[in-house]
Amino acid sequence: LRFFFMENILQKYLIDLEPIGRRIEVEAGTTLLEAAQQAGVDLVAACGGTGICGTCRVRPLNGELNPLTPNEEEMLEPEQVKAGYRLACQAVPHGNLKVEIPPESLPVAQKIQLEGRQAAVALQPGVLAVDLALEPPSLHDLRADLRRVEEALGYNLESEPAALEQLSQELRRNNWSVRLAVRLSPPGGQNYRLAGTFAPGTPLLGLAVDLGSTKLAIYLVNLETGATLAQSGVMNPQIAFGEDVVNRIAFANKSEDNRRLLQTRVVEALNAALVELCARAHASPGQVVEAVVVGNTAMHHFFTHLPVVQLGTAPYVAAASRPLEAWAAGLGLKLAPGALVYLPANIAGYVGGDHTAALLATRAYPGRVRLLVDIGTNTEISLSSGDEIFTCSTASGPAFEGAHIHDGMRAAPGAIERVHFNEGKVHVSTIGGLAPVGCCGSGILQALAELLSAGVIDERGALRKDAPGVRQVDGRSEFLLVPAARSGHGRDIVITRRDVNEIQLAKGAIRAGIEIMLQKSGLQAGDVEAWIIAGAFGTYLDLASAVRVGMFPAQPLERFHQVGNAAGMGAKQMLLSLAERREATRLAGKAHYVELTVEPSFTGEFMKALYLARSGG
Amino acid sequence: LRFFFMENILQKYLIDLEPIGRRIEVEAGTTLLEAAQQAGVDLVAACGGTGICGTCRVRPLNGELNPLTPNEEEMLEPEQVKAGYRLACQAVPHGNLKVEIPPESLPVAQKIQLEGRQAAVALQPGVLAVDLALEPPSLHDLRADLRRVEEALGYNLESEPAALEQLSQELRRNNWSVRLAVRLSPPGGQNYRLAGTFAPGTPLLGLAVDLGSTKLAIYLVNLETGATLAQSGVMNPQIAFGEDVVNRIAFANKSEDNRRLLQTRVVEALNAALVELCARAHASPGQVVEAVVVGNTAMHHFFTHLPVVQLGTAPYVAAASRPLEAWAAGLGLKLAPGALVYLPANIAGYVGGDHTAALLATRAYPGRVRLLVDIGTNTEISLSSGDEIFTCSTASGPAFEGAHIHDGMRAAPGAIERVHFNEGKVHVSTIGGLAPVGCCGSGILQALAELLSAGVIDERGALRKDAPGVRQVDGRSEFLLVPAARSGHGRDIVITRRDVNEIQLAKGAIRAGIEIMLQKSGLQAGDVEAWIIAGAFGTYLDLASAVRVGMFPAQPLERFHQVGNAAGMGAKQMLLSLAERREATRLAGKAHYVELTVEPSFTGEFMKALYLARSGG
User: Fold this and answer.
1) B161 vs A169, A331, A593: nearest CB
2) SS3 B84
3) I need a surface site. Which of A78, A222, A340, B181 has the fewest CB within 10 A?
């Protein structure tokens, strides 16, 4: 018995903290609060972890734990228990575990890229408000409600029964004066469709969504003014079923139930976020009469419950690439009863409507020749020259999100985001100004650039063994970035040779993609007038460092534009204007997709691009 | 305690047997099997009521009963228990109760009107089969599935995501050769819509449904040949929430949950019936690519979940009267993923698409002037003369379905359907040739005609006290139709003065409606070349008797046509032909609806029509 007890104590478990993306190894018996603290992630824990304040709520996504403690039974609402919430200070994992830390349990919110430079758009929404004041029916005017409305409008109004139901109810509730939300169907066509019926004066709202693999960016927009009323970034709950889309496709292809789960979870998250946005904007989700949803092709298919089996194997062909309109209620989205969801064109199996939206949002940047790089686990690159667009997708991997890096983490409080070497000393700054606990993508990139400039690593990525800060552990070289004494968790923060290689692979994939796009267009890097860097990592990266390590060709920094969430901005533009949708379709149609895996020169370019400080520009 | 026991024994409960429509009063402690036997309804009970054969399955629709007995736990499948089934020999009511007797528990099936005279229709279905054989995608042909299909078709294919999902799956399952079910949207328009995707050669099927208040008539049709593959009549499960639409509207208006219940129950019944029809036809419900559903306006609103609050109060205005197309999946119907349901035009608040369908189905009857009478709880009447149609609805009540009649019952085994007086003797014949247990509508009507001819009742409906067979019970007159010794349940079967009055009210309402229609058209009864009597009761009634009691004017019997379920036939015609749908819409648009309650001459006509053997013709 004693022996068994010992074994239990010595057992170690891996705990993944999501959406922060931090992994920590803990001993059996450690609470989730202690695990987070060991990982340098501060949870709100007002009572100091004694189980009596209820503030350190977390949600285990898989794995075994101890049963609910009496403290938890007292502090958690029944709905929270039902949704799987635990108090981190009470929950003890019995094995490897993935746990979600909701934003309210973190003292400083995680950095989420919502803002982006939005182009000015002339308002031309797909759904318009039509105000009607009707005579009520009488024994001598027995016209049905729909006919009464259609005769007042002068045209037929197509409608799902659910929208008709609301029409009849609102007509009576508002004494026969209502505001209709009417949609031309198809856009520019000659059929009118009823999206919803409201009390007179009710503002009509729209929803723009960027379905990222990691985060969902959600914007609530007034369709009559174009104003963004509220916006929010929430974790993509699909992360519980696979960190990247490749893993999620594999999960989805295991069973129909799995694939359905991916669909319903993301829709539930959107519905919940919408309720919260509407509360902030003093509106109701029922006022949302149209939505535009963008995402990569896999997210697009997950969201619409299209099969993804063919996205998992060559030749990676989408079920649908052209723009789709789907009935929101049919997908489970709780909007106005007749609301549709517009999904812009996908470009290819790994280049989705999010890239179409980013192309749309960034088309106004100056210059005839523009290169758009949207950096993520897959990085999409488009080179536009005049009326020609070449597009590719390149597997840059999750290293820039802190994954597969020894002390990597996502851009969350305590993450090192800036690194400077000054006279042999390392200076780091962290998100939220906390003691450092790990390194996010932009920090690692800058660290590499500094190590390269200081001559600590060479162009192949090898660490100079005699350089200051470099040490050998188990026969492998690593650089000590922050010693244990100055870190937030009391352990060293290091950059290993393997970390350097991960970044080389990631930036090499991007650079090789850029080179192929230039070759296809018959252009040189110097011909590109605007280098547009989109996405969360792209927004925070240090451009000089990125050029220094050869991720981008050496070009004047003023030609680079870090534009934030261009996909989300493009989605908003399409929400506000049918002309923008047509332009997006045109852009997607013009894009020549280049499949890098069959491109003869790709391997050579990739090999060259692996070198740090690659010349050229 | 003893006293309490006595009280319990003396307690009596009312048991309603559905869909037979038989009510029986039983003492506490009586099993449902005994109650049915006392009511003269023979259930299948192979083991003689000892609880060991499991054949006497019934489903209590409301009320309290004893808990499941061990015999039931052994004999019933878990799904049957979940669906609320009991064994009639084991179930003991603890109060008033309504119980459904499924067809399989009756030794002789109940009479259900499915057949009707169907007009010859040139096939022009709304959904067509398009066979495609495509080149599979490759690394050098990365077109998305939908684009590949659209380019082969030469036109765009609109589609809900669920239909696209099936397209991608079936393309791969069938090696890129598939049969598409394609629909012009709107009919005759220029947009094509995908209803479903199938293996090559799969027949495309359609579903026609007549939603009766009491019964659902369902037809499975091959859209390519026009053949009816299978048909079925099942109880409308809404009967548990109200015997007629007026009661159901009141029930629906009590809460949103109630209204939703009426919708889901009828859809569940249709889905279950479809599975059964498909099994008989060796087909699958997924092959059904379109449905046509007709019903009175209340049933139409229940089915589509439109509000019915305005159908419950004057001026009885429908939410929608024109034809509607609804996505089948949105209503919960499990057909092909892109299948639509077509609902033809309603004519008024109490004249629905079922009457439109009946007008369509009977338009081919000879004669310029035709009068269509569709008899039910509400009787719809249309008088067509040349290009003019007058239509009304008249509240004939449920007497012809055996309700509100002392020994009334629906047309089920043991019901008297024919009555003849011969030299002072009464001869009756029953459905199924069983010993008589009650009288269905056609039996009561004929009995009245015979009593009138024999001088037993006078034209006001009074029973001659000295006539043979007439007796006084509690000061009220009644006629002994079948003495206890010859009945199936050992009790007398009688016709009371009140029964006569009920029939007078019912036939008077119909006759008054006919007279008003003639007045509106400026015609005499003799001008009508075809008297078309539709509906289940109309099919089985004895025409001479109906004329004898003054329900119809005295006209040559060869001008009368008993056409069966004309609404169901019309629904099938619309399923098979878009031209028929256009014609139905035209007929509904031409119908001048006359609201009898505001018609000045109605009351006078009604008073006149109450007399039995009203002159005129």
Assistant:
1) A331
2) coil
3) A78
Cβ contacts of A444 within 8 Å, gap of 6 or more: A399, A400, A402, A405, A408, A495, A499, A503
Strand, coil or helix: what is B459? Answer: coil
Whether the per-residue pLDDT at B615 is higher than 80: the answer is: no
Q: CB A138 to CB B327 under 8 A?
A: no
Q: What sign does the CA torsion over A391, A395, A396, A399 have?
A: positive
- A144 and B321: CB-CB below 8 Å? yes
Q: In one letter, which amino acid is B192? A: Y
Interface test with B, best of A169, A263, A306, A351 (most B CBs within 10 A): A306
Closest CA to B235 of B18, B415, B450: B18
- Residue B55: other Cβ atoms inside 10 A: 16
> Do the Cβ atoms of B570 and B488 come closer than 8 Å?
no
DSSP designation for A558: G
Rounded Cα gap, residues B552 and B547, in angstroms: 5
Token pair, residue B554, equals 């005295």
Q: Does the distance separating the beta carbons of A165 and B317 come in below 8 Å?
A: no
Q: Chain A: residue nearest B596 by CA?
A: A139
Neighbours of A4 (CB within 10 A): 8
Order of all β-strands in the sheet with A425-430: A425-430, A415-422, A438-439
Taking a C-beta distance cutoff of 8 angstroms, is the pair B200, B179 a contact? yes
- Find, among B396, B406, B395, B483, the residue nearest to B439 by Cα: B406
| 8-state DSSP, A402 | T
Q: Alpha-carbon distance A199 to A132, whole Å? A: 10
Average pLDDT, chain B: 89
Quick: pLDDT tens for A53-85: 677 888 898 888 999 988 888 878 888 888 888
pTM: 0.81
Q: What is the pLDDT of residues A229-281, one digit of tens each?
A: 999 989 899 988 887 888 899 999 999 999 999 999 999 999 999 999 999 99
Sequence-separated (6 or more) residues with CB below 8 Å from residue A402: A21, A22, A408, A409, A410, A411, A415, A438, A439, A440, A441, A444
What pLDDT was estimated at residue B8?
Answer: 44
Helical pair A297-304 and A353-361, crossing angle rounded to 10 deg: 120
CB burial readout A375-414, b (16+ within 10 A) else e: bbbbbbbbbbbeeebbbbbbbbbbbbbbbbbbbbbbbbbb
Rounded to the nearest 5 degrees, what angle is found at the Cα of A300, between the Cα atoms of A294 and A305?
140
Tell if the CB–CB gap between A593 and B144 is shorter than 8 Å.
no
Q: Which residues of chain B lie closer than 8 angstroms to A327, CB-CB?
A: 160, 327, 330
Chain A residues near residue B314 by CB distance under 8 angstroms: 139
Q: How far apart are CA B287 and CA B290, in angstroms?
A: 9
SS3 A194: strand
Give the rounded distance of the alpha carbon of B13 from its chain centre. Answer: 28
Amino acid at B198: F
Percentage of residues of chain A with pLDDT beyond 90: 62
Residue B4 pLDDT class (50, 70, 90 cuts) = very low
Q: What is the DSSP letter of B435?
A: P
Closest partner residue to B169 (CB to CB) among A161, A191, A307 is: A307
| Measured CA distances, A221 to A230, A266, B386 (Å) | 7, 20, 57
Contacts of A527 (CB under 8 A, 6+ apart): A369, A385
Structure-block tokens of residue B297:
């306006």
Strands B228-235 and A493-496: unpaired
What tens digit of pLDDT does each residue of B312-327 get? 888 889 999 999 999 9
Give A330→chain B minimum CA distance, Å. Answer: 7
CB contact under 8 A, B305 and A162: yes
